[in-house]
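note to self — DONT lose this again. spent like an hour looking for the file last time. sequence + predicted structure for the chain T wanted, 263 res
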Amino acid sequence: MPRQPDDPPFGDFQALQHNLPFVLEDGATRSLHFTRGELQSRMLTENPWQLAVDYTRTMMGFLLFNPAPAHIGMVGLGGGSLAKFCHRWLPASRMTVLEINPHVIALRRDFQVPDDDARLQVIAADGAVYLATQALQCDVLLIDGFDQGGQPAALCSQGFYDDCHAALTAGGVLAVNLHHDDPDYPLLLGRISRSFGGNAVEILNPDKSNSIVFARKGPVISPRSLSLSASLARLQAEARGQLKAELARVLWEMKDLVAGEAG
């Protein structure tokens, strides 16, 4: 059914009963949680722009495909680690972040997420509805949407991944954070691959808790065409120091996967 003039702008998310996140501090870190057993985000209080959780550095592997994207889209703000990093260290990029839980957005100052400006916009929206109804066009799309129950069904359907593909510009890259031990992981990986015509690759974190799936719209993912030095060249020394080892590992894993497929 077509959207009506009086429809909520990006889904009736305001009427939902959103769980309240809470913040824990230990002197050196500040972390965001929905339950004590599940970490959503962690910030180093002395260096709030550092990517303190391993998988966030893996997600920055999109730089191997595009070192300076003009527009980065993201579903899931959390503690804002990726938003802060990109805003600080990718000055040529603007970023649109979609977050469904208003209580999470209310904590943005606690995690030193910058105010909205010409390069950063945090929108209170149902990310699945937004991608399905708005003409978002981005060069990179990061999906990191979790709640107290894990990954919401709306953010891992076949239709959602189809909408992710449609939201990307030609050659654009999708990076999805998945829990590798989720029983539905093979199903979700298959859906992403299907939406991108098989042009997807999974990179497990060293502890195998998370898997980042990279998928590309258009050009076939070929590690031989990717350059570690080019992906890091535009970054300042502090950002290069954070990412160099992990991006090198991501590239090595991609090469190993391609070699394995060829064998």
